[in-house]
Here is the input.
Amino acid sequence: MKIFAISDVHSCTKAFESASELMYDSDIIIISGDLTKKGTRKEALEVLSHIERHNNNIIAVHGNIDRSEVMDILEEKGYNLHERGRVIKGIGFFGVGGSSPTPINTPTEYSEEKIMEFLKKGYDVVKDTNTTILVTHAPPRWTRDRTFMGLRGGSKSVNKFMRKNPIDLCIAGHIHEADGVENLDFGIVANPGSFKRGKFLTIDIDESISIQRGKIKYNNITIHPHCY
Here is the structure.
């Protein structure tokens, strides 16, 4: 399976055309939240239309900036993975959107207790698959979640859940500056970075998981040679 993974688009669509071939060649497009800048349905439809021109095999969760109307449109289109589980080609995907509480009171924040409920509900559908992928807007606390100010913006519940359940890969977002991949003893955590800045991941899943980081700048695409 080939996956094109993005996060934190924030309504900036200029990079999509440069990524058209990557999207077309992928089996699934994953969006780990914050499609919009102001959280509106109109913005979400505009972002999704740029992806659907090339590939409509999309699974997504909403971000903390996305309001409930964004989750509604993901649900209507059949893309929503929030508190859901789906098995695609034998691979289990489950997800949670929004974020744990932030200092700036963004539109869609959940308590850690609620996040744990969402995780359990989705995981129950996919727990028996050989490969399990968590799509979450908020990364696990302490991993790919450090802000420029040195604060940690990840979810404690996501961290706790990953440590207690077999998850092969967590695709997160939320903290733009924390992009990168870490291979931990309880799974791989990958933060694509902000697609508003042209950052993305390409993921190949066969007998193992291979991840490459990429960036679009001035219509040119750079793929980092690292594989995980």
About this structure: The radius of gyration is 16 Å. The chain has a mean pLDDT of 96. Residues 85 and 124 are 7 Å apart (CA to CA). DSSP finds five helices and twelve strands in the chain.
